[in-house]
Amino acid sequence: MPALQEVMRQRELTPDDVLAAAKTYVPTGKHDEAIIFASGGHSGQMFMIGVPSMRLLRTIAVFTPEPWQGWGYGVGNEILEAGNAKDQELTWADTHHPALSETGGDYDGEWCFINDKANARVAVIDLRDFETKQIIKNPISMSDHGGTFVTPDTDYVIEGGQYATPLGWEYAPMQDYEEKYRGMVTFWKFDRDRGRIDPDQSFAIELPPYWQDLMDAGKKASAGWLFGNSINTEMAVGTLEEGGQSFEAGVSQRDMDYLHVMNMAKIIELYKAGKHEPINGFPVIRLQTLIDEGVLFFVGEPKSPHGVDITPDGKFIVVSGKLDPHVTIYGFENIQKAIADKKFTSNDQYGVPVLDFDACKVAQVEVGLGPLHTQFDDKGYAYTSLFLEPAVARWTLGGDFGDLNPEPDWTLVGKTNVHYNVGHLLTYGGDTVNPKGKFLVAMNKWSIDRFFPTGPLLPQNFQLIDITETGETMPLLYDMPIGFGEPHYAQMIEASKLKPWKVYPEVGWNPHKQAVDPNHTKSGKERIERKGDEVHVHMTVVRSHFAPEHIEVNQGDTVVWHVTSVERAQDATHGLAIPAYNMNLSIEPGEYVQIRFVADKAGTFPFYCSEFCSALHLEMMGYLRVKPAAVAQSQ
Amino acid sequence: MSPDLEKIVGPRVSPEQWRKHRMRYVAPGLTLMLARVLLILSLFLPYWHMRLNAPQYPDGLHLTAYVNQLNGDVAEIDGLNHYIGMRPLNDAAKFERAVAVWAMVALVLLVEGAMYLHSRWALLLVIPAVTFPFFFLADMWFWMNLFGQNLDPKAPLSNAIEPFTPPILGTGKIGQFETIASMGWGLILAFTASGVIMLAMFLHRRAYKPLTEKGPSND
User: CA angle A157-A71-A95, nearest 5°?
Assistant: First the structure.
């Protein structure tokens, strides 16, 4: 093709470049094969990204007010308010680890959860309308990290803590660190029928103040168990000001931290048997109870690790040792045997039995510098991100996976350099019982020179890597700049598993109830009703007008504005901007939204459609007139 | 029987004739029966479809007319039509839709009546059923034309779209929309019924005309 040759010459593209482009280009009208749900970092949101095109499909508003979706500007305010801590309004979050709901250990495409590390919150997102349905604040912990992870059938959403604090949002001096500061794991019961976490059936366990990090729920062979790691078994308290070590140094002293092995099934039984006590009104199983009941064990793990990741068959636990060049692989059966044989080398200072490392370890693979996080494919390979190199390493699993690839078990196969400083990585279905292989995304923290410089603040870089072939070959395909926060983790699901609504199922649909709202307004029944000091506006919107268009109230009235979109056409979304009252709604086809505010500012306020809806979009407006109290009284 | 009445109901068939040419006399009745079944069936089937194609509607917009109702994307099409000042679709043919089912029952009863008239008058009774599908299309055209030619001059896009009558069958163009109108199975059955009735009338004449020519006393 002469035209292609000419473009390659002009744009200085190699055949590999063109091949990469051909593997990722999705022509107009065609859809991506897979969808990434990515944390939005401190944007507090979630991002949907198509694969292989790496196109951003949309932001899902979660913890942070977001004007396009009206989120926090009239839509979802009560959901956001439910996450506030100690009466402090929170308008940002540090979203870390999204978890797609699972059935039998595989993504089912129905729900997604995500945690806010900054304030220990968990959100529930409905994957029919991609709207956040619930935000829940952890009642005992200030921060979290080991979440969200789901059990194989999404019975529980797991939220592990991060920085130890006294449980229950209390004060304690640093001298009391070992005595009063604690870690925790919260088990949020998910009620799938209601689509909500049920706090009344949820509970937490108390853990030593070791800065628990990532977690993973067992699956298949290890179902009913939970694994987590920790980075500060030193219990460093940061003594830089006294001439001692900073946290950075103090936390990294020991060669081994503790892999936490938790018998989750028995822990749930303990909760149901009432063996807990309330902290800040929330049931917590005490550390001593966990020890007495024999449901918590530690195993040594090198060194300040990040990821703890369970192989698709549930038989191996892979720990990436961050400050150690190895990944360490533990056998679930080995751990069970060590527990049964009471192969304890010691207890930790709180009395938790520490299992013999060599009895639990199956293998160690030297993968490189700064191993952080591991995922799996369908060919018996594991992939570990190497923060310091920075690269992605491919290595072989053993056990039943050994026959799936040509290389010997537990060996490094190859590496692909990434740009730069990779944190988490994700593969296609890579943390499920049924990984797909094919795609890997390196979630790079730094992009340095990869894109046109955007001032001193640069985007992160998601790099798509092709892992279709066996052996060393893992070509880099595409760089996607992420210019809106620092995503941590993401999951990739088959697009075909998602069943999104194209419009809300019926006119008058309340997305919070996922049902038709009795207060919705039917066409022809638009009206304004005064009930004492409350003015109820029953409004419909359709291209290209509001009905009614004139709303006149007295200063001090409470306005209850019921807005129903009677649209049924896909993408015929309207906005309702009420600028002087800082409101902006997104009213999607069929949606019902209710807002309530006190009309405390007198004046003449044009309201208008803020979502370009039609040729007469500009004309889609009305007037809110708030009569000054003095004038209203004189009449 | 008075001679006038006998002229209308036509000659009766003697038992001997019946035995001799049984199929000849059964055939008109059976074919009319088939026509009646087709007409009744058509009541439950769409008579007419229109698909409107425009880039911003990748799946198109669909209208489906039954004899007594209009289904499909009526609200969406009405929503679009309000920009050009066309009245809501359900304002059209209100009377026709209200009486349609009873009118169809009447047609079927008339066709049934035709079985008992062995004279030319039978033709009169089946004319409404035979012409019904043509009437349906003509009525459709009438309303389309009335609505399309009488757009509200105060509508937002009144000066952008000239009055129009979309083709009642086949392809047309209105603004950015391509319209594709086609017959539904109901209308096809109604047309088939018309043909079957005409066949029945031929069989009817073949059976009873000889009797008339031979005179009433001939048996």
Answer: 40
